[in-house]
Design brief:
Blueprint: E1 5-9, E2 12-16, H1 19-28, E3 32-37, E4 43-48, E5 64-69, E6 78-81, H2 84-101, H3 107-116
Antiparallel strand pairs: 1-2, 3-4, 4-5, 5-6
Length: 132
């Protein structure tokens, strides 16, 4: 399987033929889909990845990723998406769960509550270190 290179053109994803074109475009494009400061929970960030993270021949490309940084779940929670629209909507659902549904939770309940967000959709990696 040869790698397919993807670039983000506004909200649209398109393929490019060479790694050189991918690198040039990738460097100058804004890959950030959304970012939300979630206070004590940290920052929720959704970005365009540029390479297919499904890693399976014939699968629908997984090109976007949402992660939590800092806070009690720093880099422990991860969701992946096929399209810009899925990534944007998923980011909004997850941010809402963190910021509106659980204000004031005691510290010991934050990780458990954050783990419940895994059920909000997307392609969740149980262990981000697995790299799939």
């Amino acid at each position: 399987m040869s790698p397919r290179y993807y670039v983000l053109d506004g909200r649209e994803v398109r393929t490019v033929d060479t790694i050189e074109e991918w690198g040039e475009t990738f460097d100058r494009n804004n890959r950030q889909v959304a970012s939300t400061d979630m206070g004590c929970f940290g920052e929720l960030s959704t970005v365009f990845l540029g390479l297919d993270h499904s890693f399976r021949e014939g699968a629908t490309p997984i090109l976007f990723e949402t992660m939590v940084f800092e806070g009690p779940c720093d880099q422990d929670l991860q969701w992946r998406w096929h399209t810009y629209d899925e990534a944007e909507a998923g980011h909004a659902r997850i941010a809402k769960a963190f910021t509106e549904l659980w204000p004031g939770l005691p510290d010991e309940e934050r990780v458990a509550a954050a783990n419940a967000v895994r059920n909000l959709g997307g392609y969740v990696l149980e262990d981000p270190a697995d790299g799939y």
